[in-house]
Write a structure and sequence with these properties.
about 110 residues, homodimer, 3-stranded antiparallel sheet, alpha+beta
């Protein structure tokens, strides 16, 4: 349970930053090298690498170094963690609405 | 497009904070007054109200004041914004995988 909570914290912390969401958006089009990823971003390569490390730890992105080139790709595991959390919230909320609907549909016993 | 981007920014910024996610988790069980919501949280009422304002602006939470009591409830619109963003990333990524699969399945023409 606590492990799961930590994973949720890491994913939503990672997605809470607009640059990191822009990186995930770019990577959903396909794998890309770190230097090509960094080019359109208005920041140092070191800052991009730092964002990538947070994304990697959250399970949203995977990077791999071949020779001198590091390539990043999306890792759907992290997206699933966020999706599941949202689904659970929505389903709890909808169940409650259903129960309310049932209560309102019951004949008045008073 | 820019309006949509601003909505995505607000929702993920709101969900990026663990206290605000805890508030959304609590509210998915049902509406609750601000004072009852604040009780188990280890912070001042003013801090809770500040978090609620961010959640309200993001469309994740709605609050309503009746007399002297303010009640908060979940607003599924905000959850949908986050869900859609994640779905789009996943679907782009899966389409790319499909195209790769098709390319690999094609007979070698060289």
């Amino acid at each position: 349970m606590h492990v799961q909570q930590a994973a949720i914290d890491r994913v939503f912390h990672a997605l809470g930053d607009p640059t990191r969401r822009a990186i995930v958006e770019k990577l959903s089009e396909g794998p890309i090298t770190v230097s090509r990823l960094a080019k359109p971003l208005d920041m140092t390569l070191a800052a991009v690498v730092q964002h990538l490390q947070i994304l990697e730890k959250s399970g949203l992105v995977r990077t791999e170094k071949v020779g001198r080139v590091r390539t990043c790709r999306i890792e759907p595991k992290g997206l699933s963690v966020a999706e599941r959390w949202i689904d659970e919230r929505r389903s709890l909320w909808e169940k409650r609405l259903d129960r309310l609907g049932q209560l309102l549909a019951e004949p008045d016993v008073n």
